[in-house]
């Protein structure tokens, strides 16, 4: 259930902050940061959303996405359809973003789930 929430969250998310390296973390939700993804995650109205989960997802974003990527990911919370459009785009920039985004989602599932 948390995995599904994270995928949905990541497909609808974004941010900035934090400097911890995710690859050093071995316990779920031991990371925490605030930023655009954290705020979007909490305000999206999903049952599984919590300060610790949203903070962890933000921290993973901070360590694995570029600032612009974080902003785009955060926008997905308000406009889920734009995530689908980005994923299906033939634009090379969107394709490169989506590869980074998928890696971010996998990291978030591993470290926050």
Poorly predicted runs are: 1-26
Order of helices and strands: HHHHHH
Seen as an oligomer or otherwise, the chain set is single chain
Could you give a short account of the major beta sheet?
none
Calculate Rg over CA atoms.
Answer: 12 Å
Shape: globular
Percent range for helical residues? 55-70%
Straight-line N-to-C gap: 9 Å
| Computed structural class | mainly alpha
Estimate what percentage of residues fall within beta strands.
Answer: under 5%
Count of domains: 1
Average predicted confidence as pLDDT: 82
The count of strands amounts to: 0
Counted by DSSP, the helix tally is 6
Structure in a nutshell:
By secondary structure, the protein is mainly alpha-helical. The chain has helices at residues 2-10, 36-43, 51-64, 67-78, 80-88, 92-112.
Give a structural overview.
The chain has 113 residues and is an all-alpha fold. The chain has one domain. It is 65% helix and 0% strand. It has six helices and no strands. Helix 2 runs antiparallel to helix 3 (51-64), helix 2 (36-43) runs parallel beside helix 4 (67-78) and helix 3 (51-64) crosses helix 6 (92-112). The relative contact order is 0.23. Mean pLDDT is 82; it is low at 1-26.
Characteristics:
113 residues, disordered N terminus
């Amino acid at each position: 259930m948390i995995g599904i929430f994270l995928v949905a969250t990541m497909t609808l998310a974004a941010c900035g902050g934090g400097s911890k390296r995710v690859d050093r973390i071995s316990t779920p939700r031991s990371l925490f940061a605030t930023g655009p993804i954290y705020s979007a995650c909490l305000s999206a109205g999903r049952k599984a959303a919590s300060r610790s989960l949203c903070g962890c997802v933000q921290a993973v974003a901070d360590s694995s996405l570029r600032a612009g990527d974080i902003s785009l990911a955060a926008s997905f919370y308000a406009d889920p359809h734009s995530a689908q459009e980005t994923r299906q785009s033939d634009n090379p920039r969107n394709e490169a973003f989506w590869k980074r985004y998928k890696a971010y989602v996998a990291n978030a599932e591993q470290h926050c789930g």
